[in-house]
Amino acid sequence: MKFLGWAGVAFAATLTTVMAQETVPKKIEAEKLAPYYPTPESVVEMMLKLGGLKTGEKMFDLGSGDGRIVIMAARKFGADATGVEFDPDLFTQSMQKIRTLGLQKTARIIHGDIFKQDYSKADMLTVYLLPSSNDKVRPMLEGQLKKGTRIVAHDFSFADWNPEKIQHVDDDGEGRSHTLYLYRR
Predict the structure, then answer these.
(1) Which helix (H) or strand (E) holds 130?
(2) For position 74, which CATH number holds?
């Protein structure tokens, strides 16, 4: 009887460890392409409108932070929205909010490296990375994105790409201006 008791405890401990490994993201070895700086909700909406996001379209947010762009894309625009975030705390926070809002069918965050994802089915991408990071992801996007994919970059343009439209936001309500760039592949 004692053996079964200890075996049960060992099994429960093993099961708990396995479950914890599945739910707690592992640290991803990826280059940090930008600091976490949340985009104001009003600017998020402008980005999605500028990109012409439509219901059912596949949308990706590169470096999704707390998931606010993905959540608004799914919730307000009806998009099939995916974010990519390598910071485990931001990944967990954003997935928890997606679950709380019941958006799991249309919104998700990939805990991973931006460079190791497939964006070939994207209708639209949003990007808020540093200029040097935009330069690093540009060749990958040029190789993967289908013709007509829209890219909305926040504050920093892509070198060697000509924006279809530039939108200036004088004040986001927080005393800061923004510039949005719309590109089409």
Answers:
(1) none
(2) 3.40.50.150
Q: Which two tokens stand for residue 69?
A: 């762009």
Nearest to 73 by CA among 89, 99, 51, 90: 51
Q: Is residue 177 a part of any domain in this protein?
A: yes
Q: What's the gap between Cα 56 and its chain centre?
A: 17
Q: Is residue 10 included in any domain, yes or no?
A: no
In tens, the pLDDT along 109-149 reads: 999 999 999 999 999 999 999 999 999 999 999 999 999 99
Residue 30 tokens, joined = 């990826």
| pTM (two decimals) | 0.81
Q: What is the residue range of 160's domain? A: 41-184
**What total of structural domains would you count in the chain?**
1
Cβ-based neighbours of 106, under 8 Å, separated by 6 or more: 74, 78, 79, 80, 81
Which tokens in the block code for residue 14? 């093993």
User: Is 34 part of a structural domain of the chain?
Assistant: no
Q: What is the DSSP string of 47-107?
A: HHHHTT--TT-EEEEES-TTSHHHHHHHHTT--EEEEEE--HHHHHHHHHHHHHTT-TTTE
Q: Is 30 part of a structural domain of the chain? A: no
